[in-house]
Amino acid sequence: MLWLSSIACNGNTHSFLNYPFMEQFLNDFEFIYHPVIDSNYSLKEIVSETIACDIMLIEGTISDDFKRADVLVVDIIKKYAKIVKKIVTVGTCATFGGIFKESDYENATGLHFDRNKPIDSFKNLLDKTISVSGCPVHPETLVNTLYAIKKSVDLQLDNFLRPKEFYAYTVHNGCTRNEYFEYKVDNHKYGELEGCMFYDHGCQAPFTHASCNKTLWNEVNSKTRAGMPCVGCTEPTFPKENLFNTKKNMGIPQDLPIGVGKRTYLTLAGITKAFTIDRLEKKLFDD
């Protein structure tokens, strides 16, 4: 494998290094080059020669004027795209452009998407590409995708080329605060174990496709379980402004959960107001 770093903070690299079974992984896969892990070749050798490899992983935002080892990253991608079997965009920057779209780099985008808009650059590589978004990417999502490639598993992909195995459902699915969400009992303080963070704190879990509440971080936790709103880091719209605020129109959240219409929401909200669940509200108000 070749791990190519474009305009990046290396957050995905560091997340990847937290994979709990790294020793076994490195026995099953070999990096011809990685910016942090010891590799057989230097970056200078990678760009000056064409070293045989099966998978190219791209971390970071793509730009027409960004270079590595004095060679344009787009040219390195084009060269190795001809010989690899699969290309994996690692993280939201490589997939959608991410936070570095706010930089001064020319035409800063993801490999195939500018936010949620498909672009023509590298269009010939669509059939080879798998997107693994996240800021940073969940290490188990990345590693399991690589094993699926190695074993020639036919991964089903969504419209953004992400494996449905990990991105077909939302972060809201599996959240331990779902009962609070259903009865509109909101959290009033970050870090609290009770209450939902959707209605006041801008939690993006109902709009965000990821497995954070099913495949826990460090096998222990997730943002919403720890009392932190989901920031929607796997989505093409990341990062949003005013992340920790729920914009409302006449008391109704402007953005409703995926698949829920306004009329349906109002009906459910009316029914919910008829219930008072002391068990859910007592701890919050007592505190």
Automatic annotation (TrEMBL):
Chain residues that bind [3Fe-4S] cluster: 212, 230, 233
Domain of life: Bacteria
UniProt binding sites for [4Fe-4S] cluster 1: 9, 93, 135
Localization (cell): Cell envelope
Entry-linked InterPro entries: Cytochrome-c3_hydrogenase_C, NADH_UbQ_OxRdtase-like_20kDa, NiFe-Hase_small_C_sf, NiFe_Hase_small_N_sf, NiFe_hydrogenase_ssu
GO molecular function: 3 iron, 4 sulfur cluster binding; 4 iron, 4 sulfur cluster binding; electron transfer activity; ferredoxin hydrogenase activity; metal ion binding
UniProt cofactor(s): [4Fe-4S] cluster
Coiled-coil portions: none
Protein name per its UniProtKB record: Ni/Fe hydrogenase, small subunit HupS
Main localisation: other
Annotated residues for binding of [4Fe-4S] cluster 2: 172, 175, 196, 203
Biological processes per GO annotation: anaerobic respiration
Subunit structure: Heterodimer of a large and a small subunit.
Keywords for the protein's UniProt record, in alphabetical order: 3Fe-4S, 4Fe-4S, Iron, Iron-sulfur, Metal-binding, Oxidoreductase, Signal
An annotated GO cellular component: ferredoxin hydrogenase complex
Residues of the NADH:ubiquinone oxidoreductase-like 20kDa subunit domain: 9-148
Residue ranges constituting the Cytochrome-c3 hydrogenase C-terminal domain according to the UniProt record: 167-241
Family as reported in the entry's similarity comment: Belongs to the [NiFe]/[NiFeSe] hydrogenase small subunit family.
Pfam families listed in its UniProt record: NiFe_hyd_SSU_C, Oxidored_q6
